[in-house]
């Protein structure tokens, strides 16, 4: 049952009253779709239609910064209890620990369903636990045949994560619903908020899992059968946990025959320092860069650190150090990124020249082509290091031989968001901030659920500054004002897209 | 009871027969020192006195390569059983696993005592388990008042060690005793073979432990109280294990009031590739280089590898890579060595720029002064890396700040061996090899028991080539011929030193 089902009653009741109704007490009268659709738009109350909103009036419709802030931090109460006896109360450092599909995630999900339903939405849970809350528009039906324009993100967190990553986007979506209600705004098509399952991939190791299944890039079976890695378990699977927390829905998790999406906007903290350093309020995200992950194995020869002169060493760690410095130079010169985050040395003894090093390599570039060029150059560097190994001319190459092997573990192509969705964000930012110097177009360095939605609908993202660029950490922080600016851009982007979709005849 | 006690009988019995007598069956008649000392030199048998040996006749006295080879490999039977069901029989790859003071070490010690006693030695075990086997000379007493000229090394090994490290020096000492007996040679002073306890420091973590206690650089209490680290145990101590294997002697472990040493020669495999590369048979070791060990902690800032551009990173691993490459360049330019053998990255995630790296640094130089100069330059490099951290000029230094801290863990000063002991080795090498191109003077990169003996008596070392410079590894290998050349140089060095000590009136 949802507010949809309360059709006529709803129209006679102020939103503020409706908001206070609990899930259980709302009336259950079911009306034919055609009827309450018409009723919804023909209410006697003064209502604004999106298509009637000029840019100037749009500009005056804004989120409530305090209410948004409260939403963000009140949802943080569902967090795993710290092992320390005294839970930190300082919201600037307390962070968030809400692994997907745990008890705390269920609490956050329950809140999301209850809140969005109380704000006039109908909620849908699909087979992978994605929750779609849809607020009807002037042109809606109850079966999702008219796809909604969504604001979306995720409520799960890293094991020791921050309070904004994902949560900000969902909370701003909820705030959007409130602002629409406060202002008696009726959108042309339905709008909604979506909470994607397991974006982090921290407990079940596929990130963007829920949106990935929805988009068809991850199979439902694969996702269902994932086993917990945090804690490691051979028993607990995604499907079991979905079932046990009551979020194994029956709707297909599919862009084709599940809940369809008309457009998707995601507000997120940047997770990097660019906006903060540039003192800009908004990043208009044009896409997500391509990236590849490798395991690099460098083999040399163990030898005694005191008795082996440099000319007779095959020092795997020295070669690794050379690799690390050279690879960064390549990335810098080609406008990409390269990072070595993991490195293990063998045999790991203070007076033994390492015989083997394994390291991880993460390379990124906004362009697939440039990424492949980077990769080629890096492979060239490997050959160069191998042939530069000292003393190879002396016929004793077995003493100084270095070999480098790169194994690709993961690849994600570059994503370009839809130009019209980007334009909605950029126009909103321009209108709200007044001048173009307050924002920049940028490419997301990290993956987000929007990567998956962009495969099937117009998608764009909005970034806000992130203190010191720190994320996935309890000290992750955004300023209240920045959250509000971001939520305003999100709200306006959704409304502009709704208008655009109307203009394009999508609701006819 | 020892052969000393069999005085007169011994003189009447050919050495070959004596060698076949077991410890238990040898006669027990005790004679006054003065008597058997005289008797020993006045036997009717044809005997050579060291002082009567001209260089030309010395040259013809040589070890038996096959017998030496057999000794080396037969002692390898006391090795810890491999976990694999089939023990490798190939001596080229089987290696040796004989941690100090274990059952296998006891077996090797028993063999050493029994063999040296059967070869005419009296054995002494001191409080730290060092075993001194002394063969009387023309000028000997039974109380060690005349210090012997020793060949010495160790029978313990690394957990997964080679068959030559230490064993070669002891086996060559035993072979020396056999050659002296075969040739009816009487030395002027006593000569001996010493098996030092726990040279490796693998099970009880002080290397050169037995010789260190003897030399007074490690206290007996400290050594006794060491706890096993292989396997880790809070219970098993050196003293307990010495007692349990029957090698807790009563003689003070002291160069002052224990067994005194007139001179010490140690034959060892090089453990590096220099001789092999230079195709030389002998290294005349002049000393041991100075070295220092450090723990280096590099702190930066964790950040997202996809979202943090280079200008805003404080990448601890990139700084470590720069450190590793720069430090090697410093060492190379100053004629020393620098090695990073251990490195740990935190937080160790493929898409997180590392916030902290800890690494070990081992620096070495034959000169203490030059080592300190190296250290100063390296400290300068640390400051340089700290100040080179990007973007520090932008007033946002907290984003890109790198700090490097170096903590000294261990230091060992340079050791210069005694010129006359070196000369004994060099003259022996010259005489035996014919030309000076067949050997080189060198500095030992690693520590050896000779470092400790050199503090109190003329000491020198002899190196032989080591296949591929590999040591502390089952594939450690020396050729039979090289072992024999090394043993000959050892034998002749001891005899030359004996002659020299006689000339200097040390036995009067």
UniProtKB/TrEMBL annotation, chains A, B:
Residues 291-386 form the Peptidase M20 dimerisation domain. Keywords: Hydrolase. InterPro entries: Amidase_Cbmase, Bact_exopeptidase_dim_dom, Peptidase_M20, Peptidase_M20_dimer. Gene3D superfamilies: 3.30.70.360, Zn peptidases. Transmembrane segments: none annotated. SUPFAM superfamilies: Bacterial exopeptidase dimerisation domain, Zn-dependent exopeptidases. GO terms for molecular function: hydrolase activity, acting on carbon-nitrogen (but not peptide) bonds, in linear amidines. Belongs to the peptidase M20A family. This is Peptidase M20 dimerisation domain-containing protein. It comes from Capronia coronata CBS 617.96. The lineage of its organism: Eukaryota, Fungi, Dikarya, Ascomycota, Pezizomycotina.
């Amino acid at each position: 049952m949802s507010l949809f089902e309360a059709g006529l009653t709803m129209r006679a009741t102020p939103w503020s009253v409706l908001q206070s109704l609990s899930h259980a007490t709302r009336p259950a009268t079911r009306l034919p779709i055609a009827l309450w659709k018409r009723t919804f738009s023909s209410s006697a109350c003064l209502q604004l239609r999106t298509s009637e909103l000029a840019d100037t009036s749009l500009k005056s419709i804004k989120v409530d910064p305090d209410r948004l802030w409260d939403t963000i931090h009140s949802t943080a109460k569902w967090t795993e209890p710290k092992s320390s006896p005294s839970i930190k109360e300082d919201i600037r450092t307390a962070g968030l620990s809400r692994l997907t599909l745990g008890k705390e995630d269920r609490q956050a999900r329950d809140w999301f369903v209850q809140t969005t339903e109380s704000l006039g939405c109908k909620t849908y849970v699909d087979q992978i636990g994605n929750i779609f809350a849809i607020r009807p528009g002037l042109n809606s039906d109850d079966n999702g045949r008219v796809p909604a324009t969504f604001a979306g993100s995720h409520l799960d967190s890293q094991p020791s994560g921050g309070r904004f990553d994902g949560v900000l986007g969902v909370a701003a979506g909820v705030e959007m619903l409130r602002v629409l209600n406060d202002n008696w705004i009726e959108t042309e098509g339905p709008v909604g908020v979506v909470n994607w399952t397991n974006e982090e991939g921290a407990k079940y190791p596929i990130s963007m899992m829920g949106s990935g299944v929805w988009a068809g890039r991850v199979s439902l079976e694969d996702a269902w059968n994932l086993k917990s890695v945090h804690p490691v378990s051979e028993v607990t699977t995604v499907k079991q946990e979905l079932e046990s927390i009551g979020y194994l829905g029956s709707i297909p998790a599919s862009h084709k025959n599940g809940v369809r999406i008309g457009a998707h906007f995601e507000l997120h903290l940047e997770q990097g320092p660019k906006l903060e350093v540039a003192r800009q309020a908004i990043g208009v995200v044009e896409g997500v860069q391509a990236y590849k992950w490798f395991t690099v194995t460098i083999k040399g020869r163990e030898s005694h650190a005191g008795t082996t002169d440099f000319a007779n060493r095959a020092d795997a760690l020295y070669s690794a150090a050379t690799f690390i410095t050279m690879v960064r130079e390549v990335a810098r010169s080609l406008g990409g990124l390269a990072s070595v985050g993991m490195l293990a040395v063998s045999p790991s003894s203070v007076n033994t020249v390492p015989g083997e090093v394994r390291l991880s390599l993460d390379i990124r570039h906004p362009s697939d082509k440039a990424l492949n060029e980077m990769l080629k150059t890096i492979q060239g560097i490997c050959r160069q290091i191998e042939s530069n190994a000292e003393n190879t001319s002396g016929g004793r190459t077995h003493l100084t031989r270095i070999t480098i092997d790169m194994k690709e573990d993961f690849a994600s192509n570059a994503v370009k968001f839809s130009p019209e969705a980007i334009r909605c964000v950029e126009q909103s930012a321009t209108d709200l901030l007044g001048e173009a110097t307050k924002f920049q177009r940028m490419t997301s360095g990290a993956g987000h659920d929007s990567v998956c939605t962009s495969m099937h609908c117009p998608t764009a993202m909005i970034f806000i500054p992130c203190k010191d660029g720190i994320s996935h950490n309890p000290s992750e922080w955004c300023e209240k004002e920045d959250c509000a600016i971001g939520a305003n851009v999100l709200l306006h982007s959704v409304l502009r897209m709704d208008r655009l979709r109307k203009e394009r005849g999508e609701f006819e």
